[in-house]
Amino acid sequence: MSTVNLTKNQTLVLDVLTRSEGPLSAYTILDKLRDHGFRAPLQVYRALEKLLEFGLVHRLESLNSFVACAHREHACCSHGTVAFAICESCGQVSEFHDHVIDDQLNSWTRGKGFKPSKTTIEIRGLCAACNI
Amino acid sequence: MSTVNLTKNQTLVLDVLTRSEGPLSAYTILDKLRDHGFRAPLQVYRALEKLLEFGLVHRLESLNSFVACAHREHACCSHGTVAFAICESCGQVSEFHDHVIDDQLNSWTRGKGFKPSKTTIEIRGLCAACNI
DNA sequence: TGCGTCACGTAATGTTATTACATGAATTGT
DNA sequence: ACAATTCATGTAATAACATTACGTGACGCA
After folding, report:
1. A-chain residues within 8 Å CB-CB of B118?
2. Which member of A113, B29, B62, B128 lies 3.0 to 4.6 Å from A61 by CB, making a disulfide possible if both were Cys?
3. Which residues form the signal peptide (chains A, B) (predicted)?
């Protein structure tokens, strides 16, 4: 379990994401941090860039938005690809890992000589609660 | 094998994507079609929307861009999720299917009562040719 | 002290996507 | 034949997301 020293801006952005129910766009984060002195998108994007690097935050490509990592305590993020199920009705995001999928993707990339750097798996749909 | 009647604009957009080596952004498509009378982004987005619906085109979420479906002749697109390997050096995109991954995702969603509508799988990295 | 690095601030701009409103062509039911 | 509906289209404006360029001050270190 490595702990990183976050800067002031990184801490602020991570706090906002952690407190949030669902994913937030960079501009939404910006708005929430205006009272703390944030004035430009770049301040958010710079913090996000680092937080992504540290694995404390994930980017949801299909939503152009960001979530705090749900599995920090398990250090899950480091041993495989993270997948997301995103409810299009309530916005809730479930984060999970699947080693079979990891293996399968690895075997495809190995077979092709493809060297993966980042893998995105996102399922859009309706969560159990919304799918009544 | 169902064949769809495409409108003029849809045909133009699909042709541009089919002729292209790699994925194109909506605005790049727009530029390539100015000579054919395209003047606004909406003309492209509307055509893309339909082409996506017909399964003739895929959207790459991590790139905000679009590719013609590579497996039309196999009607692959209809029986499972499509995955993409995207080379960050040369831009080449490989499209593939994997039933084990499909099964694994289906079993996760079934277990959670999540009803999937669209699933995105994108691997960013370096293709064999670029990874020397 | 001089140098490199890094977090930060600000402004401007670039890129991607949508909303709102209007028109004409094709289809359908009567 | 006619009204009603649907659908593809065109145009303008704007919203939403992201980056480039430039400058400053703090810090570690040879």
Report:
1. 123-125
2. B62
3. none
The Å distance, CA of A104 to C1' of D26, is: 48
Determine contact, residues A25/A36, Cβ cutoff 8 Å.
no
The spacing between the Cα labelled CA in A23 and the C1' in C12, in angstroms, equals 28
Chain center to CA of B90: 17
List of residues 6+ apart from B54 with CB closer than 8 A: B4, B6
Domains of chain A and any CATH numbers: 8-125 (1.10.10.10)
Tokens of B85: 């390997």
Q: How far apart are CA B130 and CA B88, in angstroms?
A: 9
CA A84 vs. chain centroid, Å, equals 9
Chain A interface test: which of B114, B118, B122 (most A C-beta within 10 Å): B114
Measured CA to CA, the distance from residue B40 to residue A118 in angstroms comes to: 33
pLDDT in tens, B19-44: 999 999 999 999 999 999 999 999 99
pLDDT band at B115 (very low <50, low <70, confident <90, very high): very high
- With CB atoms and an 8 Å threshold, state whether B114 touches A94: yes
**Average confidence score pLDDT of chain B:** 93
Q: For helices A8-19 and A41-54, what crossing angle results, to 10°?
A: 80
pTM strictly above 0.90: yes
Partner residue opposite A115 with nearest CB, options B62, B122, B125:
B125
